């Protein structure tokens, strides 16, 4: 039979204490308030990215716009799913997701973009994805074993952000003039 570091009787007793904290127990090893802050920054990032992709989807025009716009829409939907996952995790940890539109862009890692040139749209989206990849990599490392569930959420998002960056790089390679600048 496997041995626990803490005997099961003690674990059971602790589980009965502060039950209003839900999944956050004495075994939680991260700075909860800081984790909630980081989650809310990532939530703002994903909402801004959703809005940017939606803007680009609706305003993309030109010879190559149809497949690019379809990619923008797919990415917008996936960024919205990311925002939903982050909001759910914030609530799980006893926090409140911050959807305040007045402060979204100041809290987000990525920037909103209103480019009208198709290549510039792709480039700005690629920059935003690269920002997310860098930020989420750092966050996952920072969380380490202190909050493995939140770390896994960021690792899942990270994998999809890397896929988005690769998709956008591929679009730039296929569009004449996409490799300029």
From TrEMBL:
Residues holding Fe cation: 46, 82, 129, 161, 164
PANTHER family: BACTERIOFERRITIN, DNA PROTECTION DURING STARVATION PROTEIN
Required cofactor(s): heme b
Single Gene Ontology BP annotation: intracellular iron ion homeostasis
Pfam families: Ferritin
Protein keywords: Iron, Iron storage, Metal-binding
Keyword Transmembrane recorded: no
PROSITE patterns: FERRITIN_LIKE (PS50905)
Superkingdom as given in the UniProt entry: Bacteria
Domain Ferritin-like diiron: 29-179
GO molecular function, one term: ferroxidase activity
Organism: Streptomyces formicae
Listed name of the protein: Bacterioferritin
GO cellular component, one term: cytosol
